[in-house]
Amino acid sequence: MQTLLRNGRVIDPGTGTDRVADVLVRDRTVAAVGTGLAAPEGTTVLDVAGLVVGPGFVDLHSHVHSIAGQRLQAMDGVTTALDLEAGLLPVARAYADAAAAGRPLNYGFSASWGAARAQAHLGVEPDARLETQLALLGDPGWQRTSSAAELRAWLGLLERELADGALGIGILLGYAPRTDPAEFLAVARLAAAAGVPTYTHVRELVEADPSTPVDGSEEIAIAAAETGAAMHHCHVNSTSRRHVDRVLAMLGRAQAAGSRVTLEAYPYGAGSTGVGAYFLAPERLPAWGITASNLVLVETGERIADETRLREVRERDPGAECIVEFLDERDEADRALLRRSLAYPDAIVASDAMPVLWGDGVVESRQWPLPPGGSTHPRTAGTFARSLRTMVRESATWSWAEAFRRCAYLPARVLDTSAPAARAKGHLGVGADADIVVLDPARITDTATYLDSTRPSVGVRHLLVGGVPVVRDGALLPDAYPGRPLRAEPS
User: Which InterPro entries does this entry report, sorted A to Z (predicted)?
Assistant: First the structure.
């Protein structure tokens, strides 16, 4: 299979080039980049004049494990969707399940710290399903500090997962924030020894909880300095909230000192998680500067009326997905906080995409357009298009070249040492993977809202995954399942 993208504005963040050129794709790789390239017989030629051509976006933080959700991400320009913050256990089953069902996008998983602890603490047999993990988020037996025997048990589980190709260790520390910091250091040492990164949802900041064992973001810097591990700070915007300037300055000092710390952000003032999460207990909400009415159940659209109703929902269904409004997107000061998170030098764009739900536990559909009644967080459908609209088109904070560096090149580089196959992603050099997005720079935007969350982004004209079209002329191709696994090769 050969495709020639003719006369596009080609941006390669790997070389820093931005020029009008042709891109020839042969089989699954970029065969040539230049002007006036010949079209061999049988080549599909696409005139992309006036459009921007660049490497497909690499999403380090997607909880989408379904065809339905990946199709929304494809329309947002994503070619590789990885669940690295939470991860799944066992990863061998997660990879096998994805391969058996087929995936429009490339996929991969970290080893799940949370699921490993649940097995060691509670005897819960992991089934590689996110829904199972969400249901455990509020269980005190999972949240407590481990005994010495439990610590050895779950560290052993994680070590075996890394041997099975997990792309690092996903650590939901914010859901068990009273655990002994020594446990976090133990995980960091394991990751450093294996040569893989950690991906952490940090525990509470000291401003929100003065009694926290350690400031959540500072803990990342401490562990990176002490162990030498590569440590990725997930969604710094949502965990830092109105304290993000202090957190970014602290992380900057750690980076300047040589620590291997990276970070990500998304352009929304509301997050999403299971309603049973530790930090959503009624007594914890004031620390976030919110009330029960700032929580909305995704599946039903119910806005929680008060603390009594919140306790009822947490007791009945702790894994129920909910929207958490942590900033006011109507307020310019809060919008500026989001922009500063994204503008921070080398901040990576990552979606924290959530499953699409249709009620009664239904999380999958091969129908396109998606059947009515589905709900998710709008970041599932719109994170990358919204970031481009906000940071390039509206504020001119990023150039197009910088946008592709944040959305494709930098996230792929986080994976370079642990997953050598990632070195072929995030750029458009000859020999690179033919994961390519072609977008209309004047039209690219998100359309999903909190009330209508499954509306696809617009402006992605073509999307190739491994050289295979998934989006053609702005329309998703429902028979395309070219996604392949990305696995680590631990040292």
Answer: Amidohydro_3, D-aminoacylase_insert_dom_sf, Metal-dep_hydrolase_composite, Metal_Hydrolase, Metallo-dep_Hydrolases_sf
To the nearest whole number, what is the mean pLDDT of the chain? 95
Q: What is the pLDDT of residues 291-322, one digit of tens each?
A: 999 999 988 889 999 999 999 999 999 989 89
Q: β-strands 270-274, 44-47: how paired?
A: unpaired
* Residues 274-297: tens digit of each pLDDT: 999 888 999 989 988 899 999 999
Per-residue CA distances from 308 to 186, 280, 281, 285, 414 (Å) = 39, 13, 11, 13, 43
Short-list 396, 369, 313, CA closest to 68: 369
The kind and range of the H/E element at 87 are: strand 78-88
| Domains of the chain with CATH codes | 2-55+423-476 (2.30.40.10), 57-421 (3.20.20.140)
User: Can you tell me the distance from the alpha carbon of 266 to that of 338, in angstroms, rounded to the nearest whole number?
Assistant: 8
Prediction pTM value: 0.95
Q: Is the peptide bond before 369 cis (omega within 30 degrees of 0)?
A: yes
Residue 345 has a pLDDT of: 97
